[in-house]
């Protein structure tokens, strides 16, 4: 069977075809992403109206390309999986209206996919072995920083989340403060990699907000403000840009790891999963793996292939496969935007 996945929740227009059977692994046959990053870069962030217009222009060519690369005709599709939210409302509508029209024209069922659930199921792509539960999942992206518990596929509960900025958002805002451009995550991490610790280090101290709080929540806006004040006081900050990026990134990584390990211990997790755009970060991937090995030696650590960490449609199609197996298809008339965090 084949599912076409469509994703347009932010500034990536994406389509993917995956192959699957009643049980067993999900294989990606194509994953096409048309990124609008260059268009939004000059504004320092995503402009919703421009994003929506770009989706409308790109969506059909991207879907055609996904079918062509997969060598699958639309007639062979079992269903269409579509991101229903959360995300930018005008961007979501572009994908949703396209999916609705194609479902009608091609007479196919639709599967609504929550965007966060999509990020989670990126870990299920090409998985030959069954994932063991309970799992603790850290979804860390531009819009979300959420710790979740999955007790079986389809059963996801929120354990904790950010009380203000998402981690990716903090990266993006910090990069803006340091005039580094958009999106901030990849740029800050590149600068951080260039930093070498020396004995005569310039002094930079950044807080780890809520590191020891009793809950499983996060907060990143205080960290961002602390960075702003240090930059204002430091006339030579440009000379120390790599160190600032390193310290800022490490403050984020430390809190993400501490809360994830804490949740893993509390729930006696058999699997820890990392997902979302920020999970493309090499240091976060490496340090989380080391922390799981050290603190939860019996627990498996999973993180998606880097190409499935930032927004893509293969993760949406993969999530749709698991929903399809549980009979969760709908008629095109019932499809609508849903920004709630109802994870399935
Ligand atoms: O999942 P995603 O593509 O979109 C949302 O659902 O939000 O995540 C985008 C976020 C951006 O904030 C971007 O700065 C961050 O992921 N990001 C990274 C890296 N690559 C992307 N953050 C840290 N390190 C990276 N290598
Ligand atoms: Zn995302």
Write a brief structural summary.
By secondary structure, the protein is an alpha/beta fold.
Q: Uncertain spans, ≥5 residues at pLDDT below 50?
A: none
The first-level CATH class of the largest domain is given as Alpha Beta
Q: Structural class of the helix and strand makeup?
A: alpha/beta
Domain count, please report it.
Answer: 2
Bulk shape:
globular
How many helices? The count is 10
Number of strands: 10
Helix content: 40-55%
Bound molecules: 5'-O-[(R)-(carboxyoxy)(hydroxy)phosphoryl]adenosine, zinc ion
Oligomeric state, counting identical vs distinct chains:
single chain
Q: Which strand order does the major sheet show? A: 3-2-1-4-5
Tell me the β content: 15-25%
Radius of gyration: 20 Å
Write a structural description.
- Helices cover about 40% and strands about 20% of the residues.
- With about 350 residues, the protein is an alpha/beta fold.
- It has 2 domains: about 1-125 and about 310-335, ATPase, nucleotide binding domain (Nucleotidyltransferase, domain 5, 2-Layer Sandwich); about 130-305, Nucleotidyltransferase, domain 5.
- It has a 5-stranded mixed β-sheet, with helices on both faces.
- The longest helix is centred in the last third of the chain and has 26 residues, at about 240-265.
- It binds 5'-O-[(R)-(carboxyoxy)(hydroxy)phosphoryl]adenosine and zinc ion.
């Amino acid at each position: 069977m084949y599912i076409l996945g469509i994703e347009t929740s932010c500034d990536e227009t994406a389509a993917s075809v995956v192959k699957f059977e009643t049980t067993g692994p999900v294989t990606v046959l194509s994953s096409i992403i048309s990124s609008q990053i260059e268009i939004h870069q000059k504004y320092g962030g995503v402009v919703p109206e421009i994003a929506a217009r770009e989706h409308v222009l790109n969506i059909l060519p991207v879907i055609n390309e996904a079918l062509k690369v997969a060598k699958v005709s639309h007639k062979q599709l079992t269903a269409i999986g579509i991101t229903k939210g959360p995300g930018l409302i005008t961007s979501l509508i572009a994908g949703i209206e396209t999916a609705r029209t194609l479902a009608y024209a091609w007479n196919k069922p639709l599967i609504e996919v929550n965007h966060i659930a999509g990020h989670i199921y990126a870990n299920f792509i090409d998985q030959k072995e069954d994932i063991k539960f309970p799992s603790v999942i850290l979804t860390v992206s531009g819009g979300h920083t959420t710790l979740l518990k999955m007790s079986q596929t389809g059963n996801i509960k929120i354990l904790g989340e950010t009380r203000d900025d998402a981690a990716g958002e903090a990266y993006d805002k910090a990069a803006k403060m340091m005039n580094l451009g958009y999106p901030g995550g990849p740029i800050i991490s590149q600068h951080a990699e260039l930093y070498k610790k020396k004995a005569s280090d310039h002094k930079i101290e950044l807080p780890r907000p809520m590191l020891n709080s009793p809950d499983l929540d996060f907060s990143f806006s205080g960290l961002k403000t602390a960075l702003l004040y240090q930059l204002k006081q430091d006339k030579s900050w440009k000379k120390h840009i790599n160190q600032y990026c390193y310290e800022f990134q490490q403050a984020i990584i430390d809190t993400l790891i501490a809360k994830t390990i804490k949740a893993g211990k509390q729930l006696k997790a058999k699997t820890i999963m990392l997902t979302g755009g920020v999970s493309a970060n090499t240091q976060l991937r490496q340090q989380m793996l080391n922390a799981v090995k050290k603190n939860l030696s019996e627990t498996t650590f999973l993180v998606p292939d880097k190409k499935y960490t930032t927004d893509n449609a293969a993760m949406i199609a993969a999530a749709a496969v698991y929903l399809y197996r549980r009979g969760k298809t709908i008629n095109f008339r019932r499809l609508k935007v849903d920004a709630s965090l109802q994870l399935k």
